C-alpha cells in the first residue's frame, strides 16, 4: 500500500487510489468540478491542481495515481494561484446570472469561487452564448452556463447506459447536447441535475419555484418501486417542492429514477380530501361519522367469511398491520396483497426476497433474468447490473421478452419452459450456470403471475440448488417484486387462497359481500360493483370506481412508517408534510373505525402500534441491515407450459395512482408513445 506525505502528514492509502482520494483521507479539501467518485476520470477542469515535490508544475490530483514516497502540498502559493487562474478563466464566459438561476445556493461554482477565487476578473471581453437544447420535459437547459465538466456525458454512458449526450465543436465553441438535439430517454436522466456543478442543467418542473433555504428537508424512503431508494423530501409549507436522492451505497448509491424524482406533482392532483358515501348510485361528500355509520350499516349481518380485504402497492407496514387487525376482528381471514397475481410462497421468506442484495450484484459473474425487465421494474437495480457488466465482467442472459436493458444480453428465448430444459440439462444455460463461480437468477413478477407461476417458482428453486447458486456465503436466488409494500405485506402473511382473482370471482358470484380496498388501484374493480366496497386511499384512481364508501388517507410523504425493500431491508420513512383536508393516516382511520364497529384495536398511539408490530415481527427492529433468510423448499412441483411471459409493466411512467395523477409523468409517457414505444397500464 503506497505511503504519501500530504501537507506534512504521512498517510497510507489503498492501491489504485488517486492523489485526490489520498488528500481527502488526510483531511485536505480539494476543490473539483469534473471529478466525481462514481464516474470515470476526465481530468479536464484542472480545479484539483496540487503541488508535488520534484514536479515542474502542479498536477491534476484526480488523475494522478497515488505513489509511494510522493510529497504533496495542497495549500501553497503556487496551488492558490493555479486555482484562482482556473476560476478566473471559467468566469470569462459564465453569465453570472445567479439571482435568477435555480442552482443558486447549491452551486459548486458559486461556492468554490467564494472559497478559492480572486474576487475580481481582469477580462471584459464579450461572453459567449449557446443556444438552448431540448432535453425533454424533465431537464431544463441553459447551456451558456456550462463549464464543460462532462459529468453529464459520463453519467449518461456509464450509469444510465443510454449514450444520449455528447460534445460538439472544440475549445470555446464546445457544446454539450443530445444527439440530434432530441429529448433524453433514460429513466435516470434526472440525476444529471444533481451532477451538474453549475446551473446548466436544472429541473424543469421545479424551475423558479423555490430556493433551497426556503425548504424543510425530510429524510424518507421512496415507494415508486420495491428498491427502497433513500430520498430527501423538500417541502415548503404543506407542499412537496422536490425530491432528491440520499446516498446509500448498498441500495441506490446516490441515484434515483425519474419517477421517484418527478412524480411528486401527482401528490396534489386527484386527491381524496374528504370522505364520500354512495347515495342513489352517486358518491356524495360526507363526514367521518356518516362514512363510518355507512360502513357499519353495510357490514350488518355479515360474518367473516363474507368479508375480504385487498392491499395496494404503496402502503407502509403500520397501516397494513392495523388493516389486518381490523379485519381479523371482524372475523375476516381473506386478506390479499399480491395485486399482480404473482405466486409468492410465504412459507419461506427466502422465496420472495432479493437474497443476493442489490450491492451483491457486483459479486456475481453470471446473471439469468427470468420474466423481468429491470429497466422498468427496478431502474436502480438495472443500473447496478450495468455497472457490474462494465467493471466486473458480469454476463447476462434473459428468458422472456427482449428489451433494450442498456447492457449486452444473451437472449435465450421467450418461453418459460426453457426453465424445465435447464433443469434437465438440455439447454446451454445449464452449462453457463454450472461454469459460473457466483451465478444469480432474478425472477420477475411477470413469470410468477402466470397460471403456472407456482411451478416456475419451484423450477427456479430447483435450478438454484442443482447448479450451485446456494452456498454458505452466497444466495443467488432472487425475486424482483414491483411494489414497495410487497415484501412487508408478505411478512405480515397477507396472502389468501386463490389470490386476488379468487376474491374477485367470489365477489362476482356473491359469496364475498363486502370488500375493503387499502390503496388498491391496479385491479379490475368491476367485479366489485355488486359488493359493498370500502376504499381507503389517497387518490381517486381506479379503486374508487365501484366504491360505496371512500375514506381519504395520507400519501407516503404525509406519514411516518416502516418499509421493507426487495432485499428484506427494513427502512424508516418520515413524514414531510400533512395530508390535505380531512385525510388521515391509515392506522388512525382503522383505529377510529374499530370503535364504531365494536372491535376496538388494542393501540391508541403510533408508538403502541409500532410496539405491537415489533412484538409480532421482531426482525423489524433491525433497521437498515441486509437479512439472511434461511433457505428451504418452496413452490409447487408441476409442468411449465410452453409459451411467452407477459411483463407486468408496460408504461414505466404510469404504474401507480401518484404517477398517473402527475402531469410530468403524463408528459413523459406521451413522449414515449410518440416515439412508437409500447405503453399501457401496470398489472
UniProtKB/TrEMBL annotation:
<dbReference type="InterPro" id="IPR054351">
    <property type="entry name" value="NADH_UbQ_OxRdtase_ferredoxin"/>
</dbReference>
<dbReference type="Pfam" id="PF13510">
    <property type="entry name" value="Fer2_4"/>
</dbReference>
<keyword id="KW-0520">NAD</keyword>
<comment type="similarity">
    <text>Belongs to the complex I 75 kDa subunit family.</text>
</comment>
<dbReference type="InterPro" id="IPR036010">
    <property type="entry name" value="2Fe-2S_ferredoxin-like_sf"/>
</dbReference>
<dbReference type="InterPro" id="IPR015405">
    <property type="entry name" value="NDUFS1-like_C"/>
</dbReference>
<keyword id="KW-0874">Quinone</keyword>
<protein>
    <recommendedName>
        <fullName>NADH-quinone oxidoreductase</fullName>
        <ecNumber>7.1.1.-</ecNumber>
    </recommendedName>
</protein>
<keyword id="KW-0408">Iron</keyword>
<dbReference type="InterPro" id="IPR006656">
    <property type="entry name" value="Mopterin_OxRdtase"/>
</dbReference>
<feature type="domain" description="4Fe-4S His(Cys)3-ligated-type">
    <location>
        <begin position="78"/>
        <end position="117"/>
    </location>
</feature>
<dbReference type="Pfam" id="PF09326">
    <property type="entry name" value="NADH_dhqG_C"/>
</dbReference>
<keyword id="KW-0479">Metal-binding</keyword>
<keyword id="KW-1278">Translocase</keyword>
<dbReference type="InterPro" id="IPR000283">
    <property type="entry name" value="NADH_UbQ_OxRdtase_75kDa_su_CS"/>
</dbReference>
<dbReference type="Pfam" id="PF22151">
    <property type="entry name" value="Fer4_NDSU1"/>
</dbReference>
<dbReference type="InterPro" id="IPR019574">
    <property type="entry name" value="NADH_UbQ_OxRdtase_Gsu_4Fe4S-bd"/>
</dbReference>
<keyword id="KW-0004">4Fe-4S</keyword>
<feature type="domain" description="4Fe-4S Mo/W bis-MGD-type">
    <location>
        <begin position="215"/>
        <end position="271"/>
    </location>
</feature>
<keyword id="KW-0001">2Fe-2S</keyword>
<feature type="domain" description="2Fe-2S ferredoxin-type">
    <location>
        <begin position="2"/>
        <end position="78"/>
    </location>
</feature>
<dbReference type="Pfam" id="PF22117">
    <property type="entry name" value="Fer4_Nqo3"/>
</dbReference>
<dbReference type="InterPro" id="IPR010228">
    <property type="entry name" value="NADH_UbQ_OxRdtase_Gsu"/>
</dbReference>
<dbReference type="InterPro" id="IPR006963">
    <property type="entry name" value="Mopterin_OxRdtase_4Fe-4S_dom"/>
</dbReference>
<keyword id="KW-0411">Iron-sulfur</keyword>
<dbReference type="InterPro" id="IPR001041">
    <property type="entry name" value="2Fe-2S_ferredoxin-type"/>
</dbReference>
<comment type="function">
    <text>NDH-1 shuttles electrons from NADH, via FMN and iron-sulfur (Fe-S) centers, to quinones in the respiratory chain. Couples the redox reaction to proton translocation (for every two electrons transferred, four hydrogen ions are translocated across the cytoplasmic membrane), and thus conserves the redox energy in a proton gradient.</text>
</comment>
<dbReference type="InterPro" id="IPR050123">
    <property type="entry name" value="Prok_molybdopt-oxidoreductase"/>
</dbReference>
<dbReference type="Pfam" id="PF00384">
    <property type="entry name" value="Molybdopterin"/>
</dbReference>
<dbReference type="Pfam" id="PF10588">
    <property type="entry name" value="NADH-G_4Fe-4S_3"/>
</dbReference>
Amino acid at each position: 500500500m503506497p505511503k504519501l506525505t500530504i501537507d506534512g502528514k504521512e498517510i497510507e492509502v489503498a492501491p489504485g487510489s488517486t492523489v485526490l482520494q489520498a488528500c481527502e483521507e488526510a483531511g485536505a479539501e480539494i476543490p473539483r468540478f469534473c471529478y466525481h467518485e462514481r464516474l470515470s476520470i476526465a481530468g479536464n477542469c484542472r480545479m484539483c491542481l496540487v503541488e508535488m515535490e520534484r514536479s515542474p508544475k502542479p498536477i491534476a490530483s484526480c488523475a494522478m495515481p497515488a505513489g509511494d514516497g510522493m510529497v504533496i502540498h495542497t495549500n501553497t502559493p503556487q496551488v492558490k494561484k493555479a486555482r484562482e487562474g482556473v476560476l478566473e478563466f471559467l468566469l470569462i464566459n459564465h453569465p453570472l446570472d445567479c439571482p435568477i438561476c435555480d442552482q443558486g445556493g447549491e452551486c459548486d461554482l458559486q461556492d468554490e469561487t467564494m472559497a478559492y477565487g480572486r474576487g475580481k476578473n481582469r477580462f471584459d471581453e464579450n461572453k459567449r452564448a449557446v443556444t438552448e437544447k431540448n432535453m425533454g420535459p424533465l431537464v431544463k437547459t441553459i447551456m451558456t452556463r456550462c463549464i464543460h465538466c462532462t459529468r453529464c456525458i459520463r453519467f449518461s454512458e456509464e450509469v444510465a447506459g443510454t449514450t444520449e449526450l455528447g460534445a460538439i465543436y472544440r475549445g470555446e465553441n464546445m457544446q454539450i447536447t443530445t444527439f440530434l438535439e432530441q429529448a433524453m430517454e433514460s429513466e435516470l436522466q434526472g440525476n444529471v441535475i444533481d451532477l451538474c456543478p453549475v446551473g446548466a442543467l436544472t429541473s424543469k418542473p421545479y424551475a423558479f419555484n423555490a430556493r433551497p433555504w426556503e425548504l424543510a428537508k425530510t429524510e424518507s424512503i421512496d415507494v415508486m418501486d420495491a428498491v427502497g431508494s433513500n430520498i430527501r423530501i423538500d417541502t415548503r409549507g404543506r407542499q412537496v417542492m422536490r425530491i432528491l436522492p440520499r446516498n446509500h451505497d448498498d441500495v441506490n448509491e446516490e441515484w434515483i429514477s425519474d419517477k421517484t424524482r418527478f412524480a411528486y406533482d401527482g401528490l396534489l392532483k386527484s386527491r381524496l380530501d374528504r370522505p364520500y358515501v354512495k347515495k342513489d348510485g352517486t358518491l356524495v361528500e360526507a363526514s367521518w361519522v356518516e362514512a363510518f355509520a355507512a360502513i357499519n350499516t353495510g357490514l350488518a349481518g355479515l360474518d367473516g367469511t363474507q368479508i375480504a380485504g385487498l392491499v395496494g402497492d404503496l402502503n407502509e407496514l403500520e397501516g397494513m398491520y392495523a388493516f389486518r387487525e381490523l379485519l381479523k376482528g371482524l372475523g375476516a381471514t381473506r386478506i390479499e396483497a399480491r395485486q399482480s397475481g404473482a405466486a409468492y410462497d410465504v412459507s419461506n421468506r427466502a422465496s420472495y426476497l432479493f437474497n443476493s442484495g442489490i450491492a451483491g450484484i457486483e459479486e456475481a459473474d453470471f446473471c439469468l433474468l427470468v420474466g423481468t425487465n429491470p429497466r422498468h421494474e427496478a431502474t436502480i437495480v438495472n443500473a447496478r447490473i450495468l455497472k457490474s457488466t462494465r467493471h466486473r465482467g458480469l454476463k447476462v442472459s434473459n428468458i422472456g421478452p427482449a428489451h433494450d436493458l442498456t447492457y449486452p444480453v444473451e437472449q435465450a428465448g421467450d418461453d418459460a419452459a426453457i426453465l424445465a430444459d435447464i433443469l434437465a440439462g438440455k439447454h446451454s444455460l445449464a452449462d453457463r450456470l454450472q461454469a459460473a463461480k457466483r451465478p444469480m437468477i432474478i425472477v420477475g413478477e411477470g413469470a410468477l403471475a402466470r397460471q403456472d407461476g407456482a411451478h416456475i417458482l419451484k423450477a427456479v428453486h430447483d435450478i438454484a440448488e442443482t447448479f450451485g447458486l446456494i452456498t454458505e456465503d452466497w444466495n443467488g436466488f432472487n425475486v424482483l417484486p414491483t411494489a414497495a409494500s410487497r415484501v412487508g405485506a408478505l411478512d405480515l402473511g397477507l396472502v389468501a387462497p386463490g389470490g386476488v382473482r379468487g376474491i374477485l370471482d367470489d365477489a362476482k358470484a356473491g359469496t364475498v359481500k363486502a370488500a375493503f380496498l387499502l390503496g388498491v388501484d391496479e385491479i379490475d374493480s368491476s367485479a366489485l360493483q355488486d359488493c359493498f366496497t370500502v376504499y381507503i386511499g389517497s387518490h381517486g384512481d381506479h379503486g374508487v370506481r365501484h366504491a360505496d364508501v371512500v375514506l381519504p388517507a395520507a400519501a407516503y410523504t404525509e406519514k411516518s412508517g416502516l418499509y421493507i425493500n426487495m432485499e428484506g431491508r427494513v427502512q424508516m420513512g418520515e413524514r414531510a408534510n400533512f395530508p390535505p383536508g380531512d385525510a388521515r393516516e391509515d392506522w388512525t382511520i382503522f383505529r377510529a373505525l374499530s370503535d364504531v364497529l365494536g372491535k376496538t384495536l388494542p393501540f391508541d398511539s403510533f408508538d403502541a402500534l409500532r410496539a405491537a408490530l415489533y412484538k409480532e415481527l421482531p426482525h423489524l427492529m433491525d433497521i437498515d441491515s441486509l437479512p439472511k433468510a434461511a433457505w428451504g423448499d418452496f413452490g409447487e412441483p408441476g409442468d411449465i407450459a410452453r409459451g411467452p411471459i407477459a411483463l407486468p409493466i408496460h408504461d414505466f411512467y404510469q404504474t401507480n395512482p401518484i404517477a398517473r395523477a402527475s402531469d410530468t409523468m403524463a408528459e413523459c409517457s406521451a413522449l414515449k408513445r410518440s416515439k412508437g414505444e409500447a405503453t399501457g397500464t401496470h398489472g
